[in-house]
Amino acid sequence: MTTSLVALCADTMSLQHPEALGLAGENLATQGWLRLFSSAEEARRFLRADRLVDEVWVASSDDVAPINLAATLKRDRSDRRVCMLAFEDTGSLKSRVSATGIDESLTRQALAERYARRKQANACAWAASPMPCAMPTPHPASRPSAMPQARSQTTVAPSSVRSRPRAGFLLPVVSGSGGAGKSTVAVVAALLAQRMGNNTLLLDFDLQFGDAPALMGARQPLAIDELLAAPARIEQLRSEGASPALLAAPRHLEDSEAVVERAPALLDQLLARFDVVVANTGAAWAEQHALLLERSSKALFLVDQRPSSLRACQHALDLCGRCGIATGPFLYAVNRCSKNALFTSIDVSCALRGAHVFELKDGGSEVEELLGAGLPFDLIEARNDLCASLERLLQGVLPGGRGAAVQPEGGAARATGLRLPMGKRSRKRRREAAPCPL
C-alpha cells in the first residue's frame, strides 16, 4: 500500500537530538514515512524528482538558512506543501513567509502535533493493510519506482549526516550588547577546547573590531580577507600543541561586507578541517550573527552584571524569533559572577522565563592583566576562577568533554533556590530568588 510521505529538513545536531525540534524521545530514523535531510542540496535534488512526499517541514539545514531553503523547495514544486519551523509566530516572520510563498510557519508545538498525527495515521494505515499468508521475495516491479530511493534516504540520511565532511562543532560566543566579555570567553574557550584534545580554531568573526589576536599574543596571524583572497593559505591554519589555530578578523573594515557574502562557504571549509570552531562575534547584530547561529552546534549567549545587558539579551532573542533562528541550541551564561555580584544564574533564568543559565566566575584583575599582555596560556595555567567555571561548562558540551549534563555553579541547590545563609545579604538574595512566574 502506498502512503504519502513527509520530508524533514534539519541540521545535523537537531536530527541527532530531536528534542531541539520539540520531538523529545522520538527516533526519527526509524519512521518509515519520514525522509530526513541535513543538506539543503541533497534535499532539493531528491524532492525535485520525488512523487511520494506531499509535505516538507523545514527546521534548518547544515548549509542554508531555513527560510531560503523552504522558499526554494516551494519554487521547485509549487504543488507540494512546504512548512517552516519558527519558534515564535511573529508578524514579521509571517510577512516573510507569505512573501516567499511558503505555505505555513509552524511553532514547535504545532510541529509536534502534526508529527504525532502523521505518525498515528501511518501506523493505522499499515495496521489496516491485509497481510499475505506467505511473504514471497518482492519483485522489483511490484514496488513504486521511487520507493527504493526514498527508503535509502531514510536510512542513509542520518548516517550520512554523521559522516559528512563538515563535521566540526561550531560554538559562537554572542551577547546582546558590547562589554559582556565575548572576546575573553571566546579566547579561553578555544584554549580549553584544545586542551580537551580537539583540533580547535579560534575564529575572530567580530568583523569590525576583533581583538582576539591581541589577547592571544599572536603577531600577524592570517586574516579572513587574506584567506578569501588566497584560498590555498588555508593550509596555514593549524593548531599546534596547546595552541589553537587562529583566523583573525579582516584587516580592513571596508572588506566586512564582502566577507559576509562569502562566509557560508568559508565556514563549511573551516568546519571540515577542525573538530571545534569557537567564533568570537561583535556587539552590533548583523547578517554575520545569523550565519553563525544558523550553523552552530551550540551558541554561548553571555549576559554580564548590567541590567542593560540582560535587556539587550531579551531584545536579541526576540530578533532571533522574528528571523526564524532556532534558539534551542543556545547556552546562556551570566558572566563575572562573584559573592557581591548583582545577578546570579537564578536571576537571569527568571528573566529568561526559566531558561537554564550557567555562571561564569569573575576572574578578577588577573584576566585583564594576562590577556592584555598577550599571555593567555599563563591565565589557563593559573587555574583562574573564570577558566575553571568555563571549563566545567564546556566539558558537558564539547567533543572530548565528559559529556555529562552540566549544572549551574552551585548545582541543584541553586536551581531550587536553597542557599546557605551567609549573613544579611545572602538572606536577602534568598528572598529574591523565590520561584518566579514563568
Automatic annotation (TrEMBL):
Q: Which GO terms describe its biological process?
A: negative regulation of cell division
Recorded GO cellular component terms are: cytoplasmic side of plasma membrane; cytosol
Q: Which Pfam families match?
A: ParA (PF10609)
Task: Report which superkingdom the organism of origin falls in.
Answer: Bacteria
InterPro entries, per database record: P-loop_NTPase, ParA/MinD_ATPase, YlxH/NBP35
Keyword ATP-binding included in the entry's annotation:
yes
Give me the stretches of Basic residues compositional bias: 422-431
- SUPFAM superfamilies xref list: P-loop containing nucleoside triphosphate hydrolases
Q: What GO molecular function terms would the record report?
A: ATP binding; ATP hydrolysis activity
> Which region ranges are annotated with the description Disordered?
402-438
Q: Keyword set for this entry?
A: ATP-binding, Nucleotide-binding
Record flagged with keyword Methyltransferase: no
Q: What is this protein called?
A: Chromosome partitioning protein ParA
